[in-house]
Amino acid sequence: MQRTITATLYLLFLLPGVIRADASAEQLIADYDLEVAATPVSERPGWQAPNRILVHGADEARMQWLQAAVPDVELIAVSGYDDARQHVADADGLIGLCSNDLLQAGDQLNWVQLYSAGVEYCVELPAFEQDPPLLTNMQRIAAPVIAEHVIAMMMTLSRNLETFIRAEANGEWRRGNEYTRDMRVIKGKTLLVVGLGGIGTEVAERAHALGMTVIATRNSKPEGPDFVAKVGLPPDLKDFITEADVVVNALPLTDKTRDLFDAGHFDRMKESALFINVGRGGTVVTDDLLAALENGGIAGAGLDVTDPEPLPSDHPLWQAPNTIITPHVATRSDLEGEARWRVVRENLRRYASGEPMLSVVDPERGY
Questions:
Q1: Is residue 254 assigned to a domain?
Q2: Domain containing 224 — which CATH number?
Q3: How many Å apart are CA 143 and CA 56, to the nearest integer?
Q4: Catalytic residues
Q5: Which of 36, 92, 154, 202 is an S-S bond match for 147, by CB 3.0 to 4.6 Å?
Q6: What pTM did the predictor assign?
Q7: Average confidence score pLDDT of the chain
């Protein structure tokens, strides 16, 4: 029987499009520059070798692959919140879900693994504030894909492609100056990354490769990689933003970043500048952004996130000039979340064995 299971798992690893063999933990950490906790999770109060962990969103083949990493732990696949409520009372960990009632009902729940980088929907819950479990997320995992989305938006706006795409749909040949005068080059321009974390660093590297001067702000320290010409702290944003031809918002949503981009910041931007948001919609005052677009305060915007979200069909932002809106899909790609599952499997193994975890969230910082 054991030989049959082993053979099945081996085949699953080889089948294209199903599950590929996992790289070593060291390679995974190096590939995405993941942060490893300073102390083993076994030193966390309340930790014990887990008996039962709930997993959301995994099919049978994926569950077998995960189970192979923790043969002594009972993994239970749950289809959603209602299903999870039936099993969470005696679960030690919860993968892929976070809600107030699940946290309250999980009497011995000591670990929550999220599939997203954003954690505000979890850390802001009353139950989380009372007795928070260890929280791990997907910081940096989607960063390369999101960075490509940023570059695609920047190029589309810079070359006025949205105008020509609409013209193509109507069979119109728009070559006049009124359609081409706003087309610009990227090389030599200045790009400001607001939030030089995983996403911001990937954006900065790509922009530098395109011949742009990259400047950035970050919350931790005024230092960065060689391809970033200048790094400042949050108070420097008001000055940095005046230099930028493209402003990329890669910030998480926290108490300090909520409504950060308001009329004051948009007023300080160049009229020719582009604003791209792949962070969180709540970091922007939508009415102020809309006003800046409509009155020519900035030249255009690329938005993968909005506030509110989903954006209602009658919201005026849909009609804002020189604006591209994608429905929070910047993480999607042909990679199909494989890197995400590698992190889940490695953290599952680490939690079961009491080792230092990957990508631990600091609830006070909110990321």
A1: yes
A2: 3.40.50.720
A3: 23
A4: 280, 309, 328
A5: 202
A6: 0.85
A7: 92
